[in-house]
Amino acid sequence: MDQASRLNYNGTRAVSAADMKFGVLIVDEYSDFVERHIGAMLDMLRRLGCLDNDIVVKQIPSLGDTVLGVQFFAEYTDVDGVLVVMPAEKLYANQALLGGIVHLQMQWNMPVCIGGSERASDIVEMVALQCEMEAAAPEQGERPKFS
After folding, report:
1. For residue 9, with 0-12 CB atoms within 10 Å meaning exposed, 13-18 middle and 19 or more buried, which class applies?
2. Nearest Cα residue to 66 out of 28, 12, 21
3. What's residue 4's pLDDT?
4. What is d(CA 61, CA 28) in angstroms, rounded to the nearest whole number?
5. pLDDT band of 47, cuts 50, 70, 90
6. Most buried in the list 4, 21, 94, 125, measured by CB within 10 Å?
């Protein structure tokens, strides 16, 4: 059984972040939160198997720049997912920005997790699930022509 399909004691899959690449977007406006979480977040990604050169850390000035920061990761890098380091409730309270993040996730088929160090394992789980489902998907042939 491969590592991505093994179950932990609590029934969740034990996954590895080996061969995964992540963007970490630091929101400077929440520097106190970032200072409390960034070290543990990066350590968790490493413990899960992600190499240092597969972690791209960028900073943005404020909450209002979050959607654009995630867009930059999607468009200009080859990351598999993005971690936005900031208090999640601040983004959840701003429906316009949250909608922008959701739109980017759908447009780019790229998981985005918002919060602190506890979200590191979540992003790895989401990328692993995405890879697993993509590998299991039936081959898509050319669509039939109806005209």
Report:
1. exposed
2. 28
3. 39
4. 5
5. very high
6. 125
Q: For residues 17 and 48, is the Cβ–Cβ distance under 8 A?
A: yes
Residue 1 — very low, low, confident or very high, per pLDDT cuts 50/70/90?
very low
77 burial (CB, 10 Å; 0-12 / 13-18 / 19+) is middle
The pair of structure tokens assigned to 47 is 């413990």
Q: Do 53 and 79 contact (CB within 8 A), yes or no? A: no
User: How far is the C-alpha of 50 from the C-alpha of 13, rounded, in Å?
Assistant: 17
Maximum CA extent, the chain:
61
For the chain, what is the HEC assignment?
CCHHHCECCCCCECCCCCCCCEEEEEEHHHHHHHHHHHHHHHHHHHHCCCCHHHEEEEEECCHHHHHHHHHHHHHHCCCCEEEEECCHHHHHCCHHHHHHHHHHHHHHCCCEEEECHHHHHHHHHHHHHHHHHHHHCCCCCCCCCCC
Angstrom distance (rounded) from CA 64 to CA 142: 41
